[in-house]
Design goal:
It is a single chain. By secondary structure, the protein is mainly alpha-helical. It has one domain (about 10-325): Na+/H+ antiporter like fold, CATH 1.20.1530. It is about 85% helix and about 0% strand. The chain is built from 16 helices and no strands. Helix 2 (about 30-55) crosses helix 10 (about 185-195) and helix 15 runs antiparallel to helix 16 (about 290-345).
Length: about 350
């Protein structure tokens, strides 16, 4: 039986279940310390496998399209933070200060990799450029995100230290495993391609572990006593507004700059999305443990909204292009048939 469209995907249901579980049975004490070590290992393994999976050929194939990449990076690391700051008068009445800090953190994050590429492919966009642009965004985000956080979020009580200290921690926990995976790609690359389900399991499993640990710590610090239901409703409105503005800006900019339709699709999907897979581990490094739960909540909601909206857009644009191609093919066949009939009439 087909799954009803109103039911979220299994991963989203798992995220909701983990938040509920952490709210009811948060870990603390030595169990929390052991859980923290486990999540650090899972996150390191995640980035190691991503490094082993990433094809250098695909990066080289898309790397020459520098104008497209500049637009995507500008949208990700310039336009989004400016939106977060410019909308403060609108956002502040809707959410708590902790949730607004989460919105600003969301604005500093790199683009997604897997879903950006998948949606670009479905919509018949420039896939090699999407691979390169989304991957570059993730790598650059390791350095740019903590620097932007130090500029935008001045609440030092929530911060885990200086920008350089944070960057160094992220390099050790995320970039070093990634580089190790890239170096070992000739050895384990085929195995990774053959067992993609393992990467998906580690990807989603590590996020669930970090979310559980983050919300456990935040619940122990009284998270749900500080966030009213009206603020939760407000953050949903905020996330939807941010995504709508990002989509509108990338659509308008890519058209004005004269990109082809395939490149426009790539810019739209890579430039309007934010990475949950990178954001949750970064939040764990950048922010104090007690603040992580509130900080990642806007990201979790934005992640689900962007998946639903971008999936609908990708399917619509992909179906429209296929229909156009069929019409063009039918027109070519009709003209070819007419030419043959004309030639036969001439011979007669």
């Amino acid at each position: 039986m087909a799954r009803p469209k109103f039911i979220p995907d299994n991963f989203t249901l798992s995220l909701i279940g983990v938040v509920i579980l952490a709210s009811l049975f948060p870990v603390h004490g030595q169990a929390a310390t052991a859980f923290n070590w486990l999540t650090n290992f899972a996150v390191g393994l995640l980035f190691f496998l991503h490094g082993a999976k990433l094809s250098r050929e695909a990066i080289i194939a898309g790397a020459t399209h520098w104008r497209l990449h500049l637009v995507v990076l500008a949208s990700t690391f310039v336009v989004f933070p400016l939106l977060g700051l410019a909308l403060k008068p609108v956002l502040s009445p809707l959410v708590t200060p902790a949730l607004y800090a989460g919105v600003l953190f969301l604005c500093t994050l790199p683009s997604t990799v897997q879903s950006s590429i998948a949606f670009t492919s479905i919509a018949r966009g420039n896939v090699p450029a999407a691979v390169c642009s989304a991957s570059a965004s993730s790598l650059i985000g390791i350095f740019v995100t903590p620097a932007l956080v130090s500029l935008l979020i001045t609440n030092q009580a929530a911060s885990g230290g200086s920008a350089w200290h944070t960057i160094w921690n992220i390099v050790l926990q995320l970039l070093v495993p990634f580089i190790a995976g890239q170096l070992l790609r000739p050895v384990i690359g085929r195995w990774i391609e053959r067992y993609r389900g393992v990467l998906k399991f580690v990807d989603q499993g590590s996020i669930l572990l970090v979310v559980f640990g983050a919300f456990s710590e935040s619940v122990n610090e009284g998270l749900w006593h500080h966030i009213p239901l009206s603020a939760l409703a407000g953050i949903i409105v905020v996330c939807a507004l941010m995504l709508a503005l990002a989509l509108g800006i990338t659509i308008f900019t890519s058209k004005k700059l004269g990109f082809s339709r395939a490149d426009q699709i790539t810019i739209i999907f890579c430039g309007s999305k934010k990475s949950l897979a990178a954001g949750v581990p970064m939040a764990k490094v950048i922010f104090a443990s007690s603040a992580v739960g509130a900080v990642v909540l806007p990201l979790m909601l934005f992640h689900q909204i962007q998946l639903m909206v971008c999936a609908a857009l990708a399917q619509h644009w992909g179906a429209r292009d296929m229909s156009s191609e069929r019409d063009a093919l039918a027109g070519d066949e009709s003209r070819a048939g007419g030419t043959k009939r004309t030639a036969a009439a001439v011979r007669r």
